[in-house]
Automatic annotation (TrEMBL):
Belongs to the glycosyl hydrolase 18 family. InterPro entries: GH, Glyco_hydro18_cat, Glyco_hydro_18_chit_AS, Glycosyl_Hydrlase18_Chitinase. This is chitinase. It holds the Pfam family Glyco_hydro_18. The keyword ATP-binding does not apply. Residues 16-315 form the GH18 domain. GO terms for cellular component: extracellular region. Its EC number is 3.2.1.14.
Amino acid sequence: MAKVPISGGQAFPTSRNLAVYYGKAQNTDSPSLYDLCTNSNVDMIVMGFVRQLNGPTALPSFGFTRYCKTPASCTDKTRVSCSDMAANITFCQSMGKKVLISLGGSVSNLTLDSVSDAHEAASILWNVFGAGANSTALRPFGNVAVDGFDFDFESGADTTYMDTLASSLQSYFRSSSPERYVSAAPLCANNTVLPYGLYANANFVWPRFYNAKACCFGSKGFNKSVSTWYSYLNSINSDLGPTYPRVYLGGLSFNNSNSGFMEPDAFVNATFTGRRLVQSKFGGVSLWEGTDGLVTKNAQGRDFLNVTKAGLLGDI
């Protein structure tokens, strides 16, 4: 029986979107979410990271607490107040930008032991960060709800039941408005780090074409890797409909002394090639990291985000 498409989110129908990560800047002393909110080049902001789902009192532990305050009367580290960040999220959303929270990162403990665990994790995420009505006293952003969740796992991570978690989150999304989204950031060298069923429930997939010499931007294997990813994701029988998942090219916005960084203009030229290979499933570009991209500039003084967005718009 053919699957009946469910609402997959129509706020990003084009192939010209720029998504950026936020919260782990390398070259910016005071990274500002507000700076990304006011930047016309940015369409989507992904905050990192939720690092533990089975943390103290079974609530998620997250890595952006340096932007928050812990009540003096509260010993539970998950009960933090992020009122300034909540205000910035609201402002971002008022500017038409989507704000997601990423699960994982380089150091995390997000192991799920069963389908039941996955459903419970979805409930916790929905009620702590999403539009859920439970656990209101424990919500770091108060009544502000994010626009979805991103899955970012390194090689070797146990991602069993993450497909159930993604599917369960999509079920919550269908019960509320506005549209919300699931994204995934697999390593370019390995499409099996995340289970097939997660891709079937992802609105956006941005393989990370960096920190991997065999398939990164600028490598001999880049074009082949992009083509392989397109073929694989195009074969996914998506629960969200035939146009999903949208494929983004994940790149670096700063030189981290590893593999995959290209100067802004060279990077844009490489995305042109990738865009042709991905064809109609192309959704845009994702960058690690947004605020670092504001300080990485080309010879003309244009920052990485501006040059990348101009390339997506065909205005360079």
